[in-house]
């Protein structure tokens, strides 16, 4: 009899536990539904992303020559969890934004209107099922790439939102200054391997060392980059100018700051576009007459673009 009572008590206890679990589940579900309820009104806003500008309201973007000179400018539909219809957002280009306090001193210049065009005229489109709107900015390659100012973040497109099919526009996030520059396809960090053979001023070999380091190439014009070093040396005294010709042959030379380490081509110099690899053979002559013969392979590893680390392509 005692055993039976114990079993009955355990059953009642288990039923109570199940009852309370069900109550908690219902309450939790109810709270979650309350939490998920959309706001009464939707609103349009630019994001606070700055692309590395570190300036509120300014977005830095970089396009890459030979990788498509266009980019998407985006905004957000806020206040709802699910967007069931297409929305549009009108905008205008407002040069006065470049004259505002905190912006004018940065030296931005209004990008000429014939340097770019928009995919959707003067409207952002937010498709049904999405809360992100965009317009594609298409850069004119002939005009933009041949302007020296385009090598730095100087040319700006100042956006101001004007009207929308959504309920409202957030007045605190209704402007964004897009600042665009370009780099060429060769810019980035390269893993370098190879050999360096040293000679004295009389031409006698004095040693051989292997190369294994990282070289950084920075865009200076359409098909030209400057390295932050040569051989196993890093610094402005060892910078090289590297020009990639239309047939992928390469010419190398000195920069203004590296004349004390005179570079001359000394064999095959080329770029392989399929593997993003430079093969360089050159001679470096010091002011005392000693020199080094360098055989180098530099393989593209990554680049930093607008704060994003882009790895092997």
Task: Outline the secondary-structure elements.
Layout: H1 2-36, E1 43-45, E2 58-64, E3 70-78, E4 87-93, E5 109-110, E6 116-118, E7 123-126, E8 132-139, H2 141-145, E9 155-164, E10 168-169, E11 175-183, E12 188-199, E13 205-221, E14 224-227, E15 229-230, E16 233-234, E17 240-244, E18 250-254, E19 261-265, E20 270-272, E21 277-286, E22 291-305, E23 308-310
Parallel strand pairs: 1-10, 2-11, 5-9
Antiparallel strand pairs: 1-3, 3-8, 4-7, 4-9, 6-8, 7-8, 9-11, 12-13, 12-22, 13-14, 14-17, 15-16, 17-18, 19-21, 20-21, 21-22, 22-23
Describe this structure in words.
The chain is mainly β and 313 residues long. The protein folds into 2 domains: 43-183, Immunoglobulin-like (Sandwich), CATH 2.60.40.1740; 188-307, Beta Barrel (Lipocalin), CATH 2.40.128.420. The chain contains 2 helices and 23 strands. The protein has helices at 2-36, 141-145; strands spanning 43-45, 58-64, 70-78, 87-93, 109-110, 116-118, 123-126, 132-139, 155-164, 168-169, 175-183, 188-199, 205-221, 224-227, 229-230, 233-234, 240-244, 250-254, 261-265, 270-272, 277-286, 291-305, 308-310. The strands form 3 sheets. Strands 1, 2, 3, 4, 5, 6, 7, 8, 9, 10 and 11 form an 11-stranded mixed β-sheet that branches. Strands 12, 13, 14, 17, 18, 19, 20, 21, 22 and 23 form a 10-stranded antiparallel β-sheet that branches. The longest helix is centred in the first third of the chain and has 35 residues, at 2-36. It is elongated and about 85 Å long. The model is unreliable at 25-37 (pLDDT under 50).
């Amino acid at each position: 009899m005692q055993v039976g009572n114990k079993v009955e008590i355990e059953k009642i206890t288990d039923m109570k536990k199940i009852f309370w679990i069900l109550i908690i589940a219902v309450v939790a579900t109810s709270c979650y539904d309350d939490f998920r309820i959309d706001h009464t009104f939707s609103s349009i806003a630019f994001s606070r992303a700055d692309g590395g500008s570190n300036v509120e309201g300014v977005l830095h973007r970089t396009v890459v020559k030979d990788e498509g000179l266009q980019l998407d400018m985006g905004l957000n539909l806020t206040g709802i969890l699910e967007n069931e219809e297409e929305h549009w957002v009108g905008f205008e280009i407002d040069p006065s934004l470049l004259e505002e306090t905190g912006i004018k001193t940065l030296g931005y210049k209004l990008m000429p209107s014939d340097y770019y065009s928009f995919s959707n005229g003067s409207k952002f489109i937010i498709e049904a099922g999405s809360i992100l709107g965009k317009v594609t900015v298409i850069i004119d390659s002939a005009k933009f790439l041949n302007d020296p100012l385009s090598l730095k973040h100087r040319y700006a497109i100042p956006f101001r939102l004007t009207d929308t099919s959504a309920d409202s526009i957030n007045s605190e996030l209704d402007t964004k200054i897009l600042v665009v520059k370009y780099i060429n396809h060769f810019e980035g960090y390269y893993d370098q391997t190879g050999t360096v053979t040293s000679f004295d001023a009389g031409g006698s070999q004095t040693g051989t060392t292997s190369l294994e380091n990282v070289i950084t190439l920075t865009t200076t014009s359409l098909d030209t980059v400057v390295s932050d070093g040569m051989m196993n040396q890093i610094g402005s005294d060892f910078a090289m100018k590297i020009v990639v010709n239309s047939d992928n042959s390469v010419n190398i030379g000195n920069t203004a700051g590296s004349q004390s380490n005179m570079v001359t081509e000394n064999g095959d110099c080329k770029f392989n576009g399929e593997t993003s690899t430079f093969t360089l053979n050159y001679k470096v002559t010091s002011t005392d007459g000693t020199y080094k013969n360098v055989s180098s392979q530099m393989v593209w590893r990554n680049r930093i673009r607008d704060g994003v680390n882009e790895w092997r392509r």
